[in-house]
Write a structure and sequence with these properties.
It is a single chain. The protein is of the alpha/beta class. Helix 3 links the parallel strand 2 and strand 3. Helix 6 runs parallel beside helix 9 and helix 8 packs parallel to helix 9.
Amino acid sequence: MAEMHEQDDLRAIGDSKSHEPLVSVVLPIYEEAEAIRELIPRIVETLQSENVRFEIVAVDDGSKDETPRVLRGLRERNPEHLRVVRHLYNKGNGSALRTGARVASGEIIVTMDSDEQHSPEDLPKLISKIPPYDLVIGARMNTYQGTWYRSLANKFYNRFASWLSHTDVQDLTSGFRAMRRSVVLHFLPLFPAGFSAPTTTTLAFLKAGYNVAFVPIDVKPRTSGKSKIKLWDDGTKFVIIILRMIMLYDPLRIFLPTGGILAFLGVLAWIAGLWNAGRLVLPNSAIFLFIAAILTCLLGLVSSQIASARIYYHGDETILIDEDPD
């Protein structure tokens, strides 16, 4: 029953008077010749069966294998649905997503990996939730068969982002997501070149007040090639991106706890000074820590004022009003 409602919603959206595609599926591709031979036809078949106007924007990020030739062949077989964009050299996953979003013409942009880990059959589940949501993320289930350290790192990122953003972030780094194009275009300058674009969009949408939903999906093992993510280099960048986005939209979330820690250390230094001197005394270390705590909190207040002045909601706010008592 739920699936019938989901398909009806999709077709209702797809019946818009505009001749532009409703959905643009952006595929960042770097040396994935074998995978895209199967993936792109599956995307076409899935969206055609849902009667949705769509396009696929394949961004070849400077591949040096057979990928360009395979894309040309797929383009010849699907000229009405497939558009191919090529970087002259490898610029990174985030740059490919940024290029695809700029080229896309659909009202809804869907990004997914090109290594066949994401199933095209899950596309309707994400698309059908826009509206009322502005960003819908395919959250990987507990059955996700990644390496133990990748799974552990993802759990850390989710917990860290949830604490900083005051939101239950179920999957911060999932690359399978659907979003309103009119909204994401405003965040494109924040996109890093590497693999942190999903982290950036999740936190940017959340902190700017947009509606974000998480939809459970199953992720399959890679069919070919190797992951381009480097655990330590990209893991450090993920943490920096999280802190950067919180600093942009909610700096007090970082400054106030930091000021509190400095003040607590100042109290400990004061107690230690009293213990050692045996009389009322305020050590230099305690004075330094108290001043640092005050300055940190003041800096946080100023940063919060600046952040509040630069946050604008660029989309149509979706407010659900239930007027039917039944």
